Every structure is written in C-alpha cells, then in structure tokens.
Fold:
Amino acid sequence: MKPDSLEAGWQPIETAPHTTNDFGIGPWVLLFIPEGLDAPNMVTVGTYFREEERDDNGRFLGGEWTAVDADMIRSAYVKPTHWMPLPPPPARQQGVD
Structure:
C-alpha cells in the first residue's frame, strides 16, 4: 500500500507531531516506510523518540523515528515518508469484559 493520495489520510512526515513527554516519547502514529524493516512499503506503528542527551536548558538535542517491526521489536533509525493518526479504538460493547 503506497500513500499516493492524501485523501486516504496519509500526510507528509514533515507534518507529523514531534512533541514528546518528559521521557522523550511522542504520540504513537501509523508510519509508511518505503524501505521497510521487514518488507518494502511497510505500514507500522511508530513514534518520534528524542535522544536522552539534553542541553544546559534541559532541551533534547536530537531525535529519530522509531517503529515496531513484525516481531514487535523496537527498531530505530527508520525513515518514514508519510504518517497518519491512529484510528480511535472500537467502542466497548456492553456485557463484554
């Protein structure tokens, strides 16, 4: 699946959120990685992760996109070209635990 159209919800990676929490982890999003970890044209879940190193003012010095591969292992240094927000979870059904 290649994100040829923004109509499908894919946005250029430059527009993805880079805000992170105190641990340097951003919101989880869907990522499109043309040269995927396990296969070409990979779609996976990922986040922007800021490096631990900070400047004298406490700001993070750098960051990278990190993703989950098919084995559910964190893989760093991926180069996504597009992203989209995760869909909302399904509504909880009554009587189902």
